[in-house]
Each structure stands twice: as C-alpha cells, then as structure tokens.
C-alpha cells in the first residue's frame, strides 16, 4: 500500500456515488416498495426519520467505505478492471455479512438480496471510480 497513490478527489466521488446508486436502488420503482414492505415501513414512518442523522452518517460511512477501498487499491498498477474487481469482491464480503445478520434477524431472502445487492453494486462502482481515476 502506497499512500501517495491515494487520489482524494476520486475517494470523494466514489463516496458520493453511493448516494446516487442508493437513490436509484431504493426508489419505489426499483426496490423501494419491496424494501419498505419487508422492513415493515411506511412512507410516513420514513418521512418522520431524522434526515440529518440518516444522511450525515450515510455520508460518513460512504466516505469510510471509499477510503478503505482506496487504501487496498493504492498501487500504481490499479486500473479500472482491478478497481471494479476489488470493489466487487469487497461487495461479496459485505453481502455475506449482511446475509448473516439478516438471517439471525429473520429477514427475508428478498431483503437480503436488496440490501446485499446494493452493497455489491456500490462497492463495484466505487472500485471502478478509484481504479480509473489515477
């Protein structure tokens, strides 16, 4: 790992990509309705959530994910292909952790694939951004 190989603007853009992907992924027309149903949530309940807390911590954790991935990819040989591959592999890791927790919480397989799929796709895109932006 070579810290001089870190590209902080790429890390920031990769972190922001999680918001864009999440906005699409959890939209009602995509997986939002199923996600809400499987979590027993209503639109009213979601609207009552503390948006500052939710989006603030989401930004923090997205930045942490992107920075952590960038640390693993901090090598001059990293390119788009390796970045996306490493991101996908990290996504499989997080998918597995989500699945384990969700199984003990008695969540549905549909919810496991919605949440785990978001993680896998987001980390793949983050890795691609970090990999291509050298």
TrEMBL record:
The lineage of its organism: Bacteria, Pseudomonadati, Bacteroidota, Sphingobacteriia, Sphingobacteriales. This is DUF1761 domain-containing protein. InterPro entries: DUF1761. Keywords: Membrane, Transmembrane, Transmembrane helix. Pfam families: DUF1761. The chain crosses the membrane at residues 6-27, 54-74, 80-100, 112-133. It comes from Mucilaginibacter achroorhodeus.
């Amino acid at each position: 790992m070579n810290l001089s190989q870190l590209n902080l603007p790429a890390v920031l853009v990769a972190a922001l990509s999680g918001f864009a992907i999440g906005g699409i992924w959890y939209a009602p027309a995509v997986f939002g309705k199923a996600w809400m149903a499987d979590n027993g949530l209503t639109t009213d309940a979601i609207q009552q959530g503390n948006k500052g807390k939710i989006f603030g911590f989401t930004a923090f954790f997205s930045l942490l994910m992107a920075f952590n991935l960038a640390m693993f990819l901090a090598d001059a040989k990293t390119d788009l292909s390796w970045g996306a591959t490493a991101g996908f592999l990290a996504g499989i890791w997080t998918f597995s952790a989500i699945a384990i927790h969700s199984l003990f919480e008695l969540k549905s397989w549909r919810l496991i694939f919605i949440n785990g799929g978001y993680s896998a796709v987001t980390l793949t895109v983050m890795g691609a951004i970090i990999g291509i932006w050298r």
